[in-house]
Specification:
The structure holds 2 protein chains of 2 kinds. By secondary structure, chain A is α/β, with parallel strands linked by helices. Chain A is built from 14 helices and 11 strands. Chain A folds into 2 domains: 194 residues, Rossmann fold; 101 residues, Helicase, Ruva Protein, domain 3. The longest helix of chain B has 36 residues. Chain B is built from 7 helices and 11 strands. Classes of the chains: A alpha/beta, B alpha+beta. At the A-B interface, helix 1, helix 12 and helix 14 of A face helix 4 and helix 5 of B.
Chain lengths: 332, 314
């Protein structure tokens, strides 16, 4: 009798553990019409221990998706509405003086939760946005002289309106790079719009969301995602894609060289790998393929490539460069 | 060249008078229509007025007056010098005598006055480049004829244009040849040759998993050339979509081969040599276009996560 291989065993475990994905999708579907790709990206970010930036015009259910997701996952959730007059202390907390005991004590801010919805993050100035840096990268916050670890899982889901809207501040590059993915939330299709309209008119009261997943399941899934096999060929494909954003001429894409001011950082390679694994997990597959990489490439790379002045003049966006690169780099 | 002609009334065969007359002319050789500068100097005692007139020029003669000026200078010894400058246009051809003129002393109408006619014996040579019957004035300077420079530049220019034309035609020919070569290269034949070569390599000991990788590349290259889409840069699902949109027969077969190759490549699958050979044969039939044969053949077993006999061995 043939012995079960390591990858087969992993595949079986993934099949068992990934059941909660369908449960979560079903719960989200009770409140969200369509937006399947966005929901998948939220799940990928959660499985890969990353943060997500959602961009789209107002009214596309960005906030509702995050709120429902946190409720379905049974995670503590704080929504922070970013405003132009906000201070970093409003986000991470501050030291409060207690006159009775004549000493300062820390008052933790809303960043202390499992899921943070940084709503309209680009409405606040850079210093407030930067206050999220330590929390996102180090999973800890320093108030006064003391550093406080954030509870796991910790995930920042930020929403932003397109920067060309009035009263917004462009996110700093360092801040952007810390988001695993930037997902563009698009308008619903004709049928979806019809369904949303009928739904809103028939059930104006909010549908309550019950928790269908426990945090322990998330931790177990994350450990499985870490074990997902990524062949050297796929890893090299990822590096080729990222290097092509930095040195397009080395990949026969000379025409892109003057169009890209700077390419993706090494975080892009790391996040492409992690997100590919998480995507394979969503497919209940114990190994990642170039297809996983291609599917999430736009979301991982779009905010890490800065178009040059020439590109902006020609109305070319990062997505155009990613498409060119994906169509040019040979798949293993 | 400066030609100096001097004379007195006696020299010119005229009766002697109270004045010395000198005639200067230059040049001594000129072309028809060109200017001859003639200067008449009359040196006299200054007691009576002297004038020079009646220059024998005009239409139908050998010279025609173009310009005339005169000046009178009293010298320290009390004598007077009359200087008459003329520019004459030369006509006719051959040796031409200088025109004659009349020197009048005193009041021409009174009895004390006198007139002397001078006919210089000297002559100038008028060379004719044109019809000697030319009677109209030539322009003061001959027109600038075409120099050698434009011709000098024209020759290299023609050579450069010729070379460029040759280069363009040569490139065009090469491109057309290349295109026709590509166009006429049979992707099916090329793919089958590569598959046969791969089969030989397997016999020589190429590991079956590497054989599958090569098979996947050969198939995608064949699809790219046969159906004109970028199969080498596409993942299997994208290839499936392309084949479906083109309604390619037996696409299921080739997709199963590609999926199996994906599993072996990305899930560290370890096929045996017989399976690899069997897949090579199926691929060869597909590439030869014998789709009916493929449709009737048994489907290929595609394993995604689990394998019956030769699963991943990590």
């Amino acid at each position: 009798m043939r012995q079960e291989t390591e990858l087969e065993a992993l595949g079986r475990e993934i099949e068992q553990e990934s059941v909660f994905i369908d449960k979560a999708r079903a719960v989200l579907a009770t409140r969200i019409v369509g937006q399947r790709a966005v929901i998948d990206r939220v799940l990928i970010a959660m499985l890969a221990n990353g943060h997500l930036l959602l961009e789209g015009v107002p009214g596309l259910a960005k906030t509702l998706i995050v709120h429902t997701f946190a409720a379905a996952m049974n995670l503590s959730f704080h929504r922070i509405q970013f405003t132009p007059d906000m201070l970093p202390a409003d986000l991470i907390g501050t030291m409060i003086y207690n006159p009775k005991e004549m000493e300062f004590y820390p008052r933790k801010g809303p960043v202390f939760a499992n899921v943070i919805l940084a709503d309209e993050i680009n409405r606040s100035p850079a210093k407030v946005q930067s206050a999220l840096l330590e929390a996102m990268q180090e999973k800890q916050v320093t108030i006064g002289d003391e550093t406080y670890p954030l509870s796991e899982p910790f995930m920042v889901l930020a929403t932003q309106n397109p920067v060309e809207h009035e009263g917004t501040y462009m996110l700093p590059e360092a801040q952007l790079d810390r988001f695993m993915m930037k997902v563009m939330v698009d308008y619903p299709s004709y049928d979806e719009e019809l369904e949303i309209m009928q739904w809103a008119s028939a059930a104006p009261t909010q549908v309550s969301v019950s928790a269908v997943v426990q945090p322990e399941e998330i931790f177990r899934s994350r450990r499985l995602v870490d074990r997902i096999y990524v062949d050297q060929r796929v890893q090299r494909y990822i590096v080729d894609l990222v290097m092509a954003t930095r040195y397009p001429d080395r990949y026969g894409l000379e025409f892109l060289a003057p169009m890209i001011e700077y390419g993706a950082s090494p975080r892009a390679s790391i996040f492409l790998l992690l997100a590919s694994k998480a995507h394979a997990f969503l497919q209940s597959r114990p190994y990642a393929t170039p297809e996983d990489v291609k599917i999430i490439a736009y979301d991982v790379l779009r905010h890490r490539i800065r178009p040059s002045y020439e590109a902006e003049a020609e109305n070319l966006k990062a997505e155009d460069f990613i498409r060119n690169i994906l169509e040019h780099i040979q798949v293993p | 060249m400066l030609c100096v002609l001097c004379g007195r009334a006696a020299d010119a065969g005229q009766p002697p008078g109270p004045a010395d007359v000198t005639v200067h002319a230059e040049p001594d050789t000129l072309l028809v229509g060109e200017r001859l500068h003639v200067e008449v100097v009359v040196h006299h005692d200054g007691r009576r007025p002297v004038s020079v007139e009646g220059l024998e020029t005009g239409p139908g003669r050998s010279f025609e007056m173009v310009r005339r000026s005169q000046s009178t200078v009293r010298l320290p010894d009390g004598s007077v010098e009359l200087r008459v400058s003329t520019d004459l246009a030369a006509f006719g051809s051959g040796r031409q005598r200088l025109p004659g003129f009349t020197v009048t002393t005193g009041q021409a109408g009174r009895s004390k006055g006198s007139r002397f006619t001078f006919r210089p014996a000297s002559s100038v040579v008028v060379a004719s480049l044109t019809d000697s019957t030319l009677t109209r004035l030539r322009p003061s300077a001959p027109p600038v004829g075409p120099g050698f420079l434009p011709w000098l530049l024209l020759l290299p220019a023609v050579a450069v244009v010729g070379l460029l034309l040759f280069a363009v035609l040569h490139l065009l020919r090469l491109t057309l040849l290349k295109d026709s070569k590509v166009g006429f290269t049979d992707p099916s034949r090329s793919a089958r040759q590569k598959l046969k070569s791969l089969d030989r390599q397997l016999s020589k000991g190429l590991p079956p998993d590497e054989g599958y990788e090569a098979l996947s590349n050969i198939l995608r290259e064949f699809l790219q050339h046969r159906y004109r889409f970028r199969a080498l840069e596409q993942v299997t699902q994208e290839i499936a979509d392309e084949l479906e949109s083109r309604e390619v027969k037996a696409r299921e077969t080739v997709l199963k081969l590609l999926l199996r190759a994906d599993f072996i490549k990305f899930a560290d699958g370890r096929p045996d040599i017989d399976e690899c050979r069997s897949s090579l044969k199926i691929a060869e039939v597909f590439c030869s276009g014998a789709t009916e044969q493929l449709e009737s053949s048994a489907p290929i077993q595609v394993e995604s996560r689990t394998s019956a006999d030769d699963g991943p061995t990590r």
